């Protein structure tokens, strides 16, 4: 019996990478994306069974993609990948940006997780929530974004503990990834500079593979790369040190960004 899979925000970037891997594994993949035309085009290009317009802020949109997936097989995996990455200090963000971060990153993941739990059959399934390394510790310049991703990590761990037998919920926490979201951020902003201070920017394929590898595993939180997770968790234990070190890391990030643009 064929199994089905949902990938939100799947028209491009990490979501597309996940969808491609799940198609290759033989799943009937349904792609949801705010850009419905791009979702349909991506589905046709990679062999997914459907690409639908989806606004993850609307709980009903998750029900619709779950129903579409059920038409193609038993739903066994759901990737809450859709997200926005407005960078900036809390004081500099507009009210609209703050609301969008919370509604897309946190509420969108919440509604998707609820829809997946309701749609999984007796055999259960996996929910993979794409969070961020910034959700594990202090990241100046990403305060609101980091807060939503920290909430996603907490949500994932708590729901995993309360979920019925056979259902597993995971949070993937990658460092900076080479996507349009990162490219759209302010290169002079502290958040972008700190992101580029931690070594090479991750590729979409590496992150997508890590997300798919969580399916069927008992691992709840995974960081990519693993060593950066340990560094950020350590910083969370001494936030005062992070504040003083931020300027040094930002300078390192600016140098890395200059090298990247020159190459």
UniProtKB/TrEMBL annotation:
Keywords: Oxidoreductase. Signal peptide: none annotated. GO terms for molecular function: oxidoreductase activity, acting on the CH-OH group of donors, NAD or NADP as acceptor. The keyword Nuclease does not apply. The keyword Secreted does not apply. Residues 3-175 form the Ketoreductase domain. It comes from the Bacteria. It holds the Pfam family adh_short. Belongs to the short-chain dehydrogenases/reductases (SDR) family. This is SDR family oxidoreductase. It comes from Nocardioides ganghwensis.
